[in-house]
């Protein structure tokens, strides 16, 4: 784990320095509450590992990794407002801590800081902009058009979660100077990982202990929010099987990419296998 901890540490250090420099101090405190309250840092880890997998070095990808984490956190702030979820990562959610208005401002602040990091690279800007369009479409779809079958759910999961994972990997590959085919292959890998991650999230919401999970459980059923378990009536075990299928497809896409760093690829493989068994 030291290998991965060092890379996540680079992201955390850059994230802390960025938040500390935000003005005014009140906004900095709000961004600190959201972005530095913990989190698995899965997406930025994917960015750094993808960069290394194609021959880059971690420092090349840190700003993009921080940027994708900021975009992710901005989306969580809005998710918690929509869901009226008072807890995030074991602490009060942004709206619960600061109120609705400041929470929305914090989300905007996170996005602004993120795009400042992406702005030096046209390909990065395009990758993230496309991901955010799909993310917004996914969020809107969830609110107004509940999926009615597994295929519709899978498309929603791709938009809600898979596209940011895809962007994370593609950003890393771009930072590492990968060719277009490898950027696409790593994006396919990460999108599948993201969908598996979302399916496992649905299962944990239905089955896990809230204290162990660090956020309320049973939210999908309470909010009548579409999850794979709710939409299809699949058992948690069968839903986990769907997640494993996505994980297997992710590994297949990863194997097609032109990579040359064995350690980074090993960790990307481990991630695809971990997301379907995680307990948080």
TrEMBL record:
Keyword Manganese: no
Coiled-coil annotated residue ranges, if any: none
Keywords recorded for this protein, A-Z: Magnesium, Metal-binding, Transferase
Cofactor: Mg(2+)
Single Gene Ontology MF annotation: transferase activity
Pfam families on file: polyprenyl_synt
E.C. designation(s): 2.5.1.-
CDD domains the record matches: Trans_IPPS_HT
Protein family: Belongs to the FPP/GGPP synthase family.
Descriptive protein name: Polyprenyl synthetase family protein
Higher taxonomy: Archaea, Methanobacteriati, Methanobacteriota, Stenosarchaea group, Halobacteria
């Amino acid at each position: 784990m030291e290998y991965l901890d060092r890379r996540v540490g680079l992201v955390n250090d850059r994230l802390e320095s960025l938040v500390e420099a935000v003005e005014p101090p009140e906004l900095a405190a709000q961004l600190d509450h959201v972005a530095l309250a913990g989190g698995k840092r899965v997406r930025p880890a994917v960015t750094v590992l993808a960069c290394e997998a194609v021959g880059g070095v971690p420092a090349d990808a840190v700003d993009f990794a921080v940027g994708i984490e900021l975009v992710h956190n901005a989306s969580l702030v809005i998710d918690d407002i929509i869901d009226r979820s008072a807890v995030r990562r074991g602490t009060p959610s942004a709206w619960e801590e600061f109120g609705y208005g400041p929470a929305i401002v914090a989300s905007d602040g996170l996005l602004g800081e993120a795009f400042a990091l992406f702005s030096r690279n046209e390909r990065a800007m395009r990758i993230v902009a496309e991901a955010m369009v799909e993310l917004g479409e996914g969020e809107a779809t969830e609110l107004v058009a509940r999926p009615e079958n597994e295929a519709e759910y899978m498309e929603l999961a791709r938009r809600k979660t898979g596209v940011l994972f895809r962007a994370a990997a593609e950003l890393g590959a771009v930072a590492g100077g990968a060719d277009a085919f490898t950027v696409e292959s790593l994006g396919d890998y990460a999108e599948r990982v993201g969908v598996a991650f979302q399916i496992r999230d649905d299962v944990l919401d239905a089955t896990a202990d809230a204290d162990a999970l660090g956020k309320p459980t049973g939210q999908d059923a309470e909010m009548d929010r579409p999850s794979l378990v709710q939409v299809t009536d699949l058992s948690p075990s069968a839903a986990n099987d769907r997640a494993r299928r996505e994980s297997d497809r992710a590994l297949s896409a990863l194997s097609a990419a032109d990579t040359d760093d064995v350690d980074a690829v090993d960790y990307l493989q481990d991630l695809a296998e971990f997301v379907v068994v995680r307990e948080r």
